[in-house]
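Hey L., structure's done. Input below.
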Amino acid sequence: MKKTISYALLFCLFLFSCKKDNRMAPDVNLLIKADAVQAKVAVATTFSVGTNNGQAFQHEWKLDGKVVSTIYNFNFTATKAGIYILAYKGYNEAGEFTHTYTITVPVPVVEITPTSSKFISRILDYLPAPGQFVNETLGKPEQAQKLIGTTTNLISLGGFGGYIIFGFDHSVVNNTGNDLAIYGNPSGAPYHFSEPGIVMVSQDSNGNGLADDEWYELAGSEYAKTSTIKNYEITYTNPKAFANVTWKDNKGNSGEVKVNNFHKHNFYPEFAANQENITFKGTLLPPSTGKVGSIIISSPFDWGYTDSYSTGDDYKTNLYNSFDLSWAVDKNGSKVDLKTIDFVKIYTGQNADAGSLGEISTEVKGAVDLGIK
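Output:
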């Protein structure tokens, strides 16, 4: 009887050990075997796995640390350019298999063709701050559209923060030297009158054709100076009449954009979505107004700003201000390596009053891609 029990016990242990030996760790067959993968914005890339030994196992896909699938495949579609980490794990009781993909999604580029134009091809947004030309011919949305395809028309951006956003029919390439020419109407010595505008650029990282991605400032000669204020904000209140437009900023200051008898209308943009108040944010350049005798002047900065009769930029010779995409910095002031850009934003960089000449308001006549002759 004892022997019978012993044989039975040994037989059971043998069966158990055989079953245990039959359990094998996942032998995974990857559809994409490379570690580095390149994908495109808004285009699906399929990652999937199979088995080489018929052994069942479970699946886990993590995109940048977040579980995105627990089945055998995952369709990756990037909504914007960037570098993504996709980690796969196949596992069962006998073991696990892992593989990590580094997915690079480049910024979409609209290539230059023989028919590409060097001029602005579309205006995406125009919102001036209060100013004497706003709501007149030089301060209306239909006037902004006239900058397309030419450098001879003119638009006013009003006081600090007022802006225009435009694009070309292609991506502007960051070549050696200056890449953009922006036209304004400053005047030179002896009666300088410049109304410096700050230039920002953006890439169409999500490929949707809209200027809704991150903006980078092209840091000009004043960017790093202590007299320049970063993260400045100003809020204008609509008087809803021909009256001074009051403003307050985030530095505890307040003031007015003063009306004059040459422009008898409301200076607040009547086409703005918010007809109560409007806030603009950006980098504030120091004022540069003064007098030569009894004549009011506004001096230019050395380089890196539009509508500025700059000496370092040689405006006198070029008749435009030039910009290098290599000057781009992010919101923290760190340099950014941009191979191409798709959108340009110009805004008035000073909050200054030129007396009888009105508020300092950047004016734009057009822009050109210097990479196209």
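The first strand starts at residue 28 and ends at 30. Confidence is low (pLDDT under 50) at residues 1-20.

-- N.
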